[in-house]
Amino acid sequence: MPTIVVEVMPKAELLDPAGKAVATALGKQGRSHFSGVRIGKRFELTVDEVTDAVLAEARELADDLLSNGVIEDVVSVRVAE
Amino acid sequence: MRIGVVTFPGSLDDRDAQRAVRLAGGEPVALWHGAHDLDGVEAIVLPGGFSYGDYLRCGAIAAQSPIMTEVVSAANAGMPVLGICNGFQILVESHLLPGGLIRNDHGDFVCRDQRLRVENADTAWTNQFTAGEEITIPLKNGEGGFIADAETLKRLESEGQVAFRYLQTNPNGSLNDIAGLTNARGNVVGLMPHPEHAVEAGFGPDTDAAMRSGVDGLRFFTSILQQTLANA
Question: Distance between CA A6 and CA B56 in Å, rounded?
């Protein structure tokens, strides 16, 4: 079955406490190459077929329900390879 | 007066809210998230808890539930609605109040007796307070950091829509120390702290007078009774 992938990230200007906690854990492991971590969400929407209308509906859904525009950005809506 | 308390899957403080309504002199009415029926109530409380396990975003799934269609249209028609903690998150996700609530900036769940200042004492749920009054009620949340864009924040401040502000310490990184909001009309109020946990001596926050004697939360519920009497 084809899959549409929606990716949502917390807005760049907002503090991401979960990402910060992971970044701190990396620091404790002595991993010096990774200076920051941000955690977002990936939704996999299974569809019968991918059409322009279905993709448009997925984009609408991404803005309406899957993300909250006050705190998050939809970074991509695409068909999985 | 019949005051509805909505139970969602994962609501935690619905019974406490019902009890607070009763102690204030009202008649609590249990409402169910899956119903399209407000059962003739005159006001509604959305209680605290972890509806739908906080999946997706806190309050986001509950905001899509059948009863919220009715709550939103009743609120838009002027019915008083109080959202406590998860209920506040549901109000924000339902767009009845602006902004958003994100994980506490320090990353930890916080549970404490919280000092607040009542900023707006002209709402359906705060008319038994005086503006500027300081109260103490319990706070317990992991995702209580209030955020909004600069323009919204400016509007909330200039139009008196900040209902409560944290005093002494900001427990979760909320912008402008905002603990609770009201809509422009004053019928919808949401806050992170829990007034229903400060309604009976022996079970509330400590005060200077005696341990666990704080009942500052009771006036949220007597406010709504007063409001309805005044309108009758």
Answer: 13
Residue of B nearest to A72 (CA): B100
How many other C-beta atoms lie within 10 A of the C-beta of residue A63? 14
In chain B, which residue's Cα lies nearest the Cα of A40? B56
Domains, chain A, ordered by start: 3-79 (3.30.1280.10)
Q: Quick check: B57 and A10 CB within 8 A? A: no
With an 8 Å Cβ cutoff, are B107 and A21 in contact? yes
The CATH code of the domain that includes B220 is: 3.40.50.880
- Per-residue pLDDT of B153-178, as tens digits, reads 999 999 999 999 999 999 999 999 99
ipTM above 0.90, yes or no: no
Q: Which helix (H) or strand (E) holds A23?
A: helix A17-28
Q: How far is B37 from chain A (nearest CA, A)?
A: 24
Q: How far apart are CA B136 and CA B205, in angstroms?
A: 7
Count how many pairs of residues, chain A against chain B, have C-beta atoms within 8 Å.
36
Q: What is the pLDDT of residues B67-120, one digit of tens each?
A: 999 999 999 999 999 999 999 999 999 999 999 999 998 889 999 999 999 999
Type of residue at A39: I
User: Could you tell me which of B109, B119, B112 has the C-alpha nearest to residue B181?
Assistant: B119
The question of whether B36 is a catalytic residue gets the answer no
